[in-house]
Amino acid sequence: MSESTLYVKVVDNDLIVLSLYVDDLLVTWSNEGIIEQFKSQIMLNFEMTNLGEMTFFLSMEIQQTQHGIFIGQQKYAREVLKKLNLENCKAISTPFSQNDKLNKEDGAEKIDEGKYRSIIRCLMYLTATRPDIMFSVSLLSRFMHCASELHYKATKRILRYIKGTLLYGLKFENKKELFLHGFFDSDWAGSCDDMRSTSRLLQSWISLF
Q1: How remote is the C-alpha of 64 from its chain's centroid?
Q2: How buried is residue 148: exposed, middle or buried, by Cβ count under 10 Å (0-12/13-18/19+)?
Q3: What is the pLDDT of residue 180?
Q4: From residue 6, how far is each of 102, 107, 119, 180 by CA, in Å?
Q5: Facing residues of 8 across strands?
Q6: 56 to 15, 121, 128: CA distances (angstroms)
C-alpha cells in the first residue's frame, strides 16, 4: 500500500515505511535486519548518504526519545515572525477573537493581496504541527482575493499567539495502550457572506507498531 510520496512494504511480519521528498528519503522500520538489507539493495542503484537519526526535515524539528517523538516548527515560526517584523510583538493567549465577524465586504481599506497571501501560506505550513491554529488559518484563507485591514489584523493576532506558544507541537508517546480523544463543535450559518455553516472533518489514523 502506498500514497503519492509514502511507500509501505511488508515482509512477513516486518514493516518498512519510506517517505520521499525530491531527493530526500525518510525511512522507519520494525526490524534491524530488514532495514540493513533494504539499505544495501537501494545503495547498489543510487548514490546515497546515510545521515543517521532524523532531527530536522522540511523546516520541522524532530526530537526522538525512548518515551516518544516530538515534532515542532519553532525555528520556522521564529523565521516567519522575523520576516514580518513581529519577533518582538506582544504575545496573546488565543489565536482568534470569538467576537470577530469577518466577511468579504467589510468596508475596511483593502491591502496588498500578495502580502496577505504570503502570510497565509506561512501560517498554513505551520498547521502541519499546530492544529490549534487550523480553524483560524482556514477561515482567513477565504479572503485571499479580497483582503482588508481587518483580515490582516486577524492574521497578526495568530502570529502574536504563535509568539507565545513557540514550543507547541505534536507529541507521539510510546505507549502500549492507545486512547482516542474526540472533540466536536459546529456553528449554524456562521459565514457572514453566504450564511453557510462550517463543515466538520473526521480525521483518523492507524498505529503501525
Answers
A1: 18
A2: buried
A3: 73
A4: 38, 46, 28, 24
A5: 17
A6: 23, 21, 14
Residue 26 one-letter amino acid: L
- The C-alpha cell at 44 is 547498489
Q: What is the rounded CA–CA span in Å between residue 94 and residue 157?
A: 8
- For the entire predicted model, the pTM comes to 0.82
Instruction: Report how far Cα 143 is from the mean position of its chain's Cα atoms.
Output: 20
**At a CB cut-off of 8 Å and minimum separation 6, what does 84 contact?**
119, 159
- In degrees, rounded to 5, the angle at the alpha carbon of residue 159 between the alpha carbons of residues 155 and 161 is 115
Give me the residue spans of the domains in the chain. 6-52, 72-173
| Confidence band of 82 (pLDDT split at 50, 70, 90) | very high
**Cα gap 161→50, rounded to integer Å:** 38
Query: What is the structure's pLDDT at 185?
Result: 65
